[in-house]
């Protein structure tokens, strides 16, 4: 006797996916893989960007601590830059006339004497130098002194006054990074070493002048500047000769 095999209608074979469904499924998988790849790539790029940013900040901090500013460089101008103080360096100012040769500047109510050989200094270094004034004096006072020293406006390329200083513990501090010139080719001349705490090895401390008509310190400065014009890095030279160049404070 033959048995009839009854098929359970509740158990159906899985339907085969249609071709278009397979395409959709495959496409979604590819998209997911591509999205994951792009995300991984972007994550890697972002990590690299953060690392580079951190390195740049760290390098900038280290350079600032060392007195070097990468943003304060000039590729177009390789001249030596000479930054000059005014009071007790190039001039001596008093409210009352103290010695012959002082000129009265009524607009600022000062009598001003010009240090011997000041004009010689400016004329000698002008052909190969950028010359700047960097003074802790107020804007009005500094402008009048500069006009007295350079009435024809042929010596000074820039003039910085008290507004470009930092006032700390009663002292106006000067920062050569404000000059905009390459520090390795910049030298300051001042009667106070403490005026330049950020770049101590960029400078020459000159003996304070209070009116001596026989003073010849500027002639010594001219000789040093003539040496520095040949140096690629004035900081290195001045650091090696620090005691020699700054023993006349």
Automatic annotation (TrEMBL):
It is a single-pass membrane protein. SMART domains: CPDc. GO terms for biological process: protein transport. Keywords: Mitochondrion, Protein transport, Transit peptide, Translocation, Transport. GO terms for cellular component: TIM23 mitochondrial import inner membrane translocase complex. Pfam families: NIF. SUPFAM superfamilies: HAD-like. The keyword Iron does not apply. Residues 1-29 are annotated as: Disordered. InterPro entries: FCP1_dom, HAD-like_sf, HAD_sf, TIM50. Residues 1-21 have a biased composition (Basic and acidic residues). Signal peptide: none annotated. It is found in: Mitochondrion inner membrane. Residues 75-228 form the FCP1 homology domain. Component of the TIM23 complex. Belongs to the TIM50 family. Essential component of the TIM23 complex, a complex that mediates the translocation of transit peptide-containing proteins across the mitochondrial inner membrane. This is Mitochondrial import inner membrane translocase subunit TIM50. The gene is ctdspl2-b.
